[in-house]
Here is the input.
Amino acid sequence: MESISASRKKIGCVRQENACLTLQDEQLISDLDAMQYEMATSKSQVYLRGPRAGVHNNVVVMSEQIRQLEAELEAQAKELKAAELRAECCQEAAAHSDIVVATLTEELSTLREELENKTALGKRAEQQRNQALENAEKLKEAFKDYKATISIKLKRVMESENKLKGSLIECDREKEELEMKCTELERQKAEHRQTISQLTEEVKQFKAAAARLQAQIEEAGHKASHLERQLMERGAECRDVASLRRELEDLRAVTHSQEQKVAQSQKEAQLSQTELAGLEAILSLLHLREGTLGQICASPCMLPPVDYTGAAHLMKLKPGEGYQQLMRVLQSKEAERLKQSNLIERLQDRLSRAQEEISSLQSSMAQRASHYQSLHTELLDKLKQATDTEKELKKKKARVAALEKQLQEKTSAYSLAALKNTELETQLQEKTSSIQHYQSLLTKKQREYQQSLEKCQQSHSHQFTEQQQRIQMLQLSLEEVHPLVAEMEQELSSLQRERDEAQRTALLLQNSLDQLTQEKQVEVRQNEEFLQSFKEQAARSAAKVCELQSSLSACRKEMNSYLQQIEEMKKNYETELERNKEKVQCW
Here is the structure.
């Protein structure tokens, strides 16, 4: 871009130099026309005064004429003196001499005037000749300088053309680089679109996973509430079981005490049987004495051998009292035995019932333990699922963080691209303003050049008409001044050729400048279109990025809330598991 501005500045400098050269050409042409006019006037005056003198020997002829006139004046003065002497001599010829003197004085005055005019004309001719020579020398020097300056300017123009070519090549390279950048930006835009679509799909997946997690959390909450209810029920059942266990222990203690009592009662029964056997033996002995008593024992022979030491004190009693006491004792023993048998039956019934209840409780406890184990396995599976979901969430968080970093990098790249676009826009605006300025300058200079050309053409036409008139008037003097005119025509033709060449170069430069301006305008339009498309794409991408950021922030909030809920549920599950473990361990 700097090379383009430099090339445009150089083009402006070349145009200014071309304008200066055209002005110098016009001045030279006007000077040549003035010189031709002065030469023509001087030639016409010399031709009117007399064809005796040429252009180059006018001064010599005029000096000779002046000398002749001075000699004539001296002779006439001598004649006047002679005439005065003669007048003094003769008064008759006085009138005639007065008339002759008057005529002579008139002729002298006319001759003096003619001499003064001729001297003035000679001086003017000398001055004009000197001026013409000086002007010719100046024109030669100016022509040489003009040739040198034109050659230098042509070299500069060639150098500027080469530089312009280089700048155009650089502009083409910059254009290719901009096209490459545009393709890269389009590719990045496509990648951004793909990433945005992927992010939207992932956001949708996150939302679906969050909905699933929320449904699972709700199901887990329902299950937890159901488990809490079951735990409450099972706590009540456990309390019942504990109370039943206490009752069983009490029953066992009672049964143990009753078994001890039964053992004691059996021992007492054995003792009583032994005593009964002894008593029966005593009764058998007494039967012989009394004779009318009924049988006490139907099968006394079935009794074991009796130790009769315990019943020795009965031998000391009276026969009727001992029997009555024995009957009382036997009745009381039978009543106690019946009571104990009833108690034993009742205790056996209660033991059977308690054993049935214990077996049912053990089966229910086994079922509940299996159920608790299944619940424990389910909770472990849910914990594994929760850990897996946490790992997936962590991975997705890492991916989201990486995507956020990529989005930040891409937003920074978009911001840099926007800044570059703004810089390019400013540069384009500056270049468009400079191009407009140069175009205005070109239009102004073209108008000035056209006006100057019109003026030159008009002046040339007027000069041509005047020259034709002068040529018609000076055809006689052209024979003498023909070589000078030929030289001047050659110089004029060479100057006209150089002027035509300069005009051609100026036209070529103007055409090249017009082509460059058109190409630059096309490039500026293309760049403006590219910039507008980039602006639209940047605005769309910025809007999409804002939407994605808002959706990501909402997803983050939802994920954070879901994570908090999951952590709370995990804590609740862990506490419940610990409680259940403690309860199971207590059982």
Q: What stands out?
A: The radius of gyration is 76 Å.
